[in-house]
Design brief:
With 155 residues, this protein is mainly α. The chain has one domain: Ferritin (Up-down Bundle). It contains five helices and no strands. The longest helix has 32 residues. The chain is elongated and about 55 Å long. The relative contact order is 0.17.
């Protein structure tokens, strides 16, 4: 099936963002693990797995539309070397993904591609309800209890 070019452009943008998020989550998970923060490492590994699943959905949809997804392009990823900044980088990446998902959903509605819009709505729900919410909670906990107390709970 031939896909709409506007929708495909949005799907490619989402793919670029998800690929960068996967790279960022992988690096941060390994750093957390190396530092002994097993709870943060496990949660970030879960986010990585969910990003992989979303990437798979995007690839399948693009291939269904007869497109050749570009796996080389990636949105710029931001990494840090301290836990608070790493969590901030991750939530900022998720904010960009949410923004791109919303824009893609608007395009899908305009182009009457309701199946893709429904797929993206599920991705948006997961992103907001799971990733963004959890990351914002972690940053709020650091603010409320202090970094040292927060990190002690992550061992």
């Amino acid at each position: 099936m031939k896909g709409n070019q506007r929708v495909l452009a949005h799907l490619q943008r989402l793919l670029n963002c998800d690929l960068a998020a996967m790279d960022q989550f992988l690096l941060h998970a390994r750093m957390f693990e190396d530092w002994g923060y097993t709870k943060l490492a496990a949660r970030t590994d879960t986010a990585l797995a969910e990003s992989r699943r979303q990437t798979d959905l995007l690839l399948r949809r693009m291939l269904f539309f007869g497109s050749a997804p570009d796996l080389v392009q990636r949105e710029a990823m931001t990494t840090a070397t301290a836990v608070r900044e790493m969590l901030r980088c991750d939530v900022e990446m998720q904010y960009r993904l949410v923004e791109n998902l919303r824009a893609a959903m608007v395009c899908c509605i305009e182009e009457q591609d309701f199946q893709t819009q429904a797929m993206l709505a599920g991705m948006l729900r997961e992103c907001e309800d799971t990733h963004v919410n959890w990351l914002e909670q972690q940053l709020a906990q650091i603010e409320a209890m202090g970094l040292e107390n927060y990190l002690a709970r992550q061992l």
